Amino acid sequence: MAPVAVVPPVAVVPPVAVVPPSKEGRGEVILIWEGIANLHKSFFLDEDAVAQLGRDLKPHIQGPANVVVSFDMKHHIGRIRLRLLPKTAIGLSFGQGDRVGIRGVSALLQALARYRSAVAARYDVRVEAFKISVDAYRGATHCRMGAAGAQPPDGRVVDACVEINGLAHCGRADTKGIRFEPAVAKTIRSCLK
């Protein structure tokens, strides 16, 4: 019998405080579809859910928030991703040296999780299985930060493994954020500007 590979547990950051739903203002949200049927688009277009998502993202995003809702039929994986374009983030990039602060990323993930849960509660509970992430593009660099924790993740726990151009870079979590190799931390902070 061949030996079984041991898979290390997912590295996660301790939970961040809950960011309550915003009750003020209105932020613009642009929904982008990939592999979503018209019936299911109508679920994700729920006015109350989209309006709350806009309010929750507004303190952290300049201009409209680009949210990609996708479903991969081949692998049966749904995703809700905030596409963070250059110079649209407000106060997300902080930390220095080998550390990346994650409070701002957690606030974005919590907003996406609330949106996902609102759609799931109103239309189809299977939507709770959709993965949530923040995808940031800076030139040729693409960073993806996702949520971890109990399913479905509520965004309070940020996965300490960040994908940079498709490769996972795992850091060490502590109460102040995530520690990476200094060059990796610098790239992630740059993605969040």
Which tags fit this structure?
single chain, 193 residues, alpha+beta, 25% helix
Overall structural domain count: 1
Mean of pLDDT? 89
Terminal-residue CA separation: 50 Å
Radius of gyration using CA atoms only: 17 Å
Beta strand count: 10
Fraction of residues in H or I helices? 10-25%
Number of helices: 4
Strand order of the largest sheet: 1-2-3-5-6-7-8
Work out the strand percent.
25-35%
Large-scale geometry: globular
Topology as H/E string? EHHEEEHEEEEEEH
Low-confidence stretches: 1-12
The largest sheet is: 7 strands, mixed
The oligomeric state of the chains shown is: single chain
Provide the structure class: alpha+beta
Provide structural commentary:
The chain is of the alpha+beta class. It has one domain (29-191). Helix content is 25%, strand content 27%. The chain contains four helices and ten strands. The chain has helices at 38-44, 47-57, 103-122, 182-191, and strands spanning 29-34, 65-72, 77-84, 99-100, 131-138, 141-146, 161-164, 167-170, 172-174, 177-179. A seven-stranded mixed sheet has the order 1-2-3-5-6-7-8. Strands 4-10-9 form a three-stranded antiparallel sheet, with helices on one face. Strand 9 (172-174) and strand 10 (177-179) form a beta hairpin. The radius of gyration is 17 Å and the shape is globular. It starts with 28 loop residues before the first strand and ends with a helix. Mean pLDDT is 89; it is low at 1-12.
